[in-house]
Amino acid sequence: MIQLVRAGERWAIAAIVCLAWGSIAWSYEAGEVTNGGTITGRVTLRGPTPEPRAIPMVLYASGDFCKKISNGEGVVLLREFNVDGEGGLQDAVVAVQEVARGKSFRYRDTELVTVNCMFHPAEVPENEQFEIQDGRLIHIHPLVTVIRNHSQVSVTNRDPIDHAMQVYQPEKGNRVMSFPIPIASRRPSNGYVELEAEKQIVQIICEMHEYMQTWAWVVDNPYFERTKRDGSFTIDKLPPGTYKVTVWHPHLKLIEKTVTVSAGGTVSLDFEFDANQVVRPLYETQKQFRIAPERDPTGDLKGCEGPYCVREEHEHH
């Protein structure tokens, strides 16, 4: 009799805990949206565009293949600020906060591919990965993606070499997930995302190639957009209401604005970042390479070939 009472007590306590957790855990309900509104706008960067990071290829394996994205001098120039002629900033994530119900998530939101020794969101077409500058084809790395917590992320390797995915939460300061990405043209590699609550920034780095980097913003609803090459964005089918809208870029301070969306209406919302506020860790601002590019033991990493030749991308450096 005493054992039955104790078991009942334990059950009651468990039920209370579940109810309490359910009341504070955020959940999103997908459903039909009728007469939703639209937010459209542009994200710009004011001031001088920060210089790209230079990473010597000699430090990493498979340089003979990965040199396709080099500058022709044995260095990968990781351009983390892609800005057009009018200040439009690519790869900022605009997200509407605390939407409880609305349209469904897109199918490929948490899919990545590795192509030409870079991580790319799976939905990014090839014409957004490269562009013509001064008659040459230049690699434009899509810097950011989005990730949903408590979900699966998949990576399809389109390169003829192996990679390995490592996921970090910079706000937490350690690695939270890793798995190999072997050569496989059709079968993706998968990992389950289990991130610390209230943390929203994720960095993804290849364990074998440091210049393979991308960033992700953690979302809990599908009302977000990654800005296009000119900094523009459109978020549609949003239930009428007043919302906080944030814009994030990996190396800039988050900006937040409040906007009211009417049924069937369209509201314009622009954001402007200040390039003078960019602060990078000391190791990213070093003046000298850890190993000079000319110390290439193979003598074969300075070449540039094929359709992805970016030999003179930053010749003024």
Write a structural description:
It is a single chain. The chain is mainly β. It is built from two helices and 23 strands. It has a five-stranded mixed beta sheet, with no helix packed on it. Strand 7 and strand 8 form a beta hairpin. The longest helix is centred in the N-terminal third of the chain and has 23 residues.
How far from one another are the termini? 81 Å
Assign an overall shape.
globular
Helix % is under 10%
Beta-strand share of residues: 35-45%
Q: List the strand order in the largest sheet.
A: 11-17-16-13-14
Question: What value does the average pLDDT take?
Answer: 78
Number of helices: 2
**C-alpha Rg, in Å?**
22 Å
Main sheet overview: 5 strands, mixed
Structural class label: mainly beta
